[in-house]
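Case 319 in the screening queue. Each case pairs one protein sequence with one candidate compound; here the compound is S-adenosylmethionine. For every case the pipeline is the same: read the inputs, emit a complex structure as tokens, and attach any notable structural observations.

Predict complex for case 319.
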Amino acid sequence: MEPPSKLLLKLSKRLFNNSDEQASFIEALINPKSFPPCIIWCQDKVENLPLIVEEPITWQPPFIDRLSLGSKPGQNPLHEQGYFYCLDFSSVFAASTLLAVNQPVQVIFDMCAAPGGKSIFAWKLLQPELLISNEVIGKRLGMLISNFKRCHISRSIVVNRDSSIFAQSIPLSTDLVIVDAPCTGQSLIAKGEKAPGCFHPSAINKNANRQKRIIANSAQIVAPQGYLAYMTCTYSPEENEEVCEWLIKKFSQFEPMEINHLKDYQSHLTKIPCYRMFPQDGLGAGAFTALFKNTHEGEKKILDIDSLSAIWINMYGDD
Ligand SMILES: C[S@@+](CC[C@H](N)C(=O)[O-])C[C@H]1O[C@@H](n2cnc3c(N)ncnc32)[C@H](O)[C@@H]1O
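Case 319 output:
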């Protein structure tokens, strides 16, 4: 076990006032552990799943199962048959703000989609008429498309453009935009994975600038009365609360929403409702999440699918 770096110590002091909390956060990072895996049921659940399912958290949606530590759901034949998609509980936590979306959603746009977890969660929960999943990095498209094919994610299209293109081509057209932003990935450390330079101020700054650019472009495609969800898997306030504060300053029509089921996880690092899960909570390596509503009244613009230059389409349930 390596001693905590100065940068990690500094971050812990910014995140927690209490020295015990600082110590448990640092301990979770320098002494990583495994967390129970989860699955999203994309098709109907099967009886007698040959995997041990943990007691659900109170707000856990019925299409999610948390499995016992060490379960390998990806090796079960039902996985290959597309019954479920595997993800970690941190992703479930982050996507769970979407449980607060309380109006019908016709179009969902996932701006940072590969390998597809948040897209599939949103598709299953909100059953949109159309799911548009964008992945800007070409070599990550294969896994996104193969997951959608395997899990039979219908009425969906995959696109591959920079967020600025969509801000221009499909403004005010989408009921829900998800930004699961590229980030420094500090929570990977709590899983025993590598994230080189993730605590370094220059990496944090570079990511924060990219996140602001992506969320600003994404905000422009949200329809009046639509939603914008922002999430990361990193701990730095610059990439999380500060991006959200920047967003509402720049686009004052976006109102951050209170998420009742996450109130115990509310971040004390900002006055606006934002939610964090930490590795020392024992459920997952950590996540940040917030949901905004576009309070503008007005007409939603019609979305021209042809303008998107889709690279994969499954409109009829075939793949
Ligand atoms: C945290 S991952 C997304 C995980 C995915 N939402 C899921 O739940 O499976 C962030 C994604 O953003 C993509 N990305 C990187 N740079 C980007 C950019 N400039 N604009 C949009 N997405 C970007 C990455 O390729 C990566 O796939």
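Case 319 observations:
- The chain has nine helices and twelve strands.
- The radius of gyration is 19 Å.
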